[in-house]
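User: Just a sanity check before I run the rest of the batch. Below are the structure tokens for the first item. I only need the designed sequence back.
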């Protein structure tokens, strides 16, 4: 028997997926970039969308939820996160130098591997129904299996360990972080690292490509080409961390499917645009992560706690606790890291860097290169879950229209993950992964802060029920 419910009492649907669910009366943005559908109905059967639009009829047996005055979009796709990191300095062994053993990195990794729901819940709470982890400890490759068929966890795909030529990182990570990086000191070693990733079940081959020493530039650029070839032989996309223009061009020549950060040292030029278009590369701007890193370091250097941006209470208690403990770190740091002038100069530099990245994003988008929502969450103060809000707003501030931001955050991310056939748009046959908003995302990207409910695989969740305790 048909039962209608206003949104205020829609919690009666509960976290388990109703066999048939009907969301009625909302304005629907389907993620394709087309005009929104006003007063639309979305019918969900067995976790998938059966009908969407004003003409859809509500089945007699449906659990119906009235959403008049609300807005529905596809669930957000966060295309660059790190499950082995926490959103604070404790999750980065290379940032702990001088903290005098305040954090136990090994114990932290054991706890995260045992309970990735810490991040699953935060993402769903923020409206993120799918995430891609492009590089981390080997255990992150096992997270995906625990999300298959779930209605309480986002979809997850992971790339596993990163390949790099930057040998100084290996001793830094030789204790707690061993296994995060694979070598590429010779052509044979680079190819072997690709083969190892494929055998481990990685969903992509990630290269951490920092500025090569001038004497090795040609050899390493050529080796990156070989890694790209080996990745294609394994049927895996090549993704590259290359934040300098020349390094990014080398990645594009190697066939990079995604650049996981912005170009930040110089304006992208015509050659970059041509190479990216030829390679079909996706651009993941991560506009806010640098600023957040510097804020975290400054909070420790100055002994001042920082506020976190978490409008819906999605961040877990342990993350809040370690961030609030920043003032105690000051006494463990060497004098050079406690210098206020250094901290303020770093924050100013972050502003200049972000301006360059925003200008490059505008150029890339105008050239028709696909852009995705990418936060690099897990890095200090780039928090799992709610960090997507500031990133979406930064994309809009860079010049993307709200409608384009929405497509980047949904359809484009799903395509990058190789899952567009399952989610990323609101279309019949796709999984019912949806977000319900009180504000209009077609007017401003900040509307995603107004999330009230999220639907994952046909199960309707109130954000208040997903919030951290």
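Assistant: Here's the designed sequence for the first item:
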């Amino acid at each position: 028997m048909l039962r209608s419910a206003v949104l205020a009492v829609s919690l009666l649907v509960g976290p388990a997926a109703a066999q048939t669910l009907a969301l009625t009366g909302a304005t629907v943005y389907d993620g394709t970039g087309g005009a929104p559908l006003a007063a639309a109905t979305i019918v969900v059967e067995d976790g998938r969308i059966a009908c969407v639009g004003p003409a859809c009829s509500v089945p007699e047996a449906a659990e119906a939820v009235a959403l008049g005055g609300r807005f529905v979009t596809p669930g957000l796709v966060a295309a660059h996160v790190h499950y082995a990191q926490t959103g604070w300095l404790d999750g980065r062994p290379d940032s702990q130098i001088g903290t005098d053993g305040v954090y136990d990195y090994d114990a932290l990794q054991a706890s995260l591997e045992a309970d990735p729901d810490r991040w699953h819940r935060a993402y769903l709470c923020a409206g993120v129904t799918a995430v891609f982890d492009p590089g981390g400890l080997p255990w992150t490759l096992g997270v995906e299996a625990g999300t298959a068929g779930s209605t309480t966890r986002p979809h997850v795909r992971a790339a596993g360990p990163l390949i790099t030529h930057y040998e100084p990182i290996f001793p830094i990570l030789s204790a707690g972080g061993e296994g995060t990086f694979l070598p590429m000191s010779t052509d044979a070693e680079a190819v072997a690292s690709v083969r190892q990733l494929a055998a481990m079940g990685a969903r992509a081959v990630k290269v951490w490509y920092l500025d090569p020493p001038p004497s090795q530039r040609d050899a390493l650029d050529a080796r990156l080409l070989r890694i790209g070839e080996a990745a294609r032989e394994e049927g895996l996309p090549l993704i590259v961390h290359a934040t300098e223009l020349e390094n990014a061009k080398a990645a594009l020549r190697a066939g990079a499917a995604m650049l996981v950060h912005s170009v930040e040292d110089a304006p992208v030029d015509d050659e970059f645009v041509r190479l990216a278009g030829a390679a079909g590369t996706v651009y993941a701007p991560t506009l806010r992560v640098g600023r957040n890193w510097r804020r975290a370091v400054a909070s420790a250097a100055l002994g001042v706690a920082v506020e976190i941006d978490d409008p819906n209470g999605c961040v877990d208690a342990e993350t809040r606790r370690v961030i609030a403990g920043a003032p105690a770190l000051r006494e463990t740091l060497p004098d050079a890291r406690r210098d206020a002038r250094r901290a303020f100069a770093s924050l100013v530099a972050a502003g200049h860097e972000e301006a360059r990245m925003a200008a490059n994003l505008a150029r890339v988008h105008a050239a028709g290169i696909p852009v995705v929502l990418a936060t690099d969450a897990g890095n200090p103060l780039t928090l799992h879950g709610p960090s997507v809000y500031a990133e979406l707003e930064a994309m809009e501030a860079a010049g993307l229209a709200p409608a384009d931001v929405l497509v980047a955050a949904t359809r484009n991310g799903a395509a990058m993950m190789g899952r567009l056939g399952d989610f990323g748009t609101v279309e019949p046959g796709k999984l019912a992964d949806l977000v319900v908003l009180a504000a209009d995302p077609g007017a401003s990207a900040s509307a995603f802060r107004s999330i009230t409910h999220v639907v994952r695989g046909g199960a309707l969740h109130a954000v208040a029920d997903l919030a951290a305790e």
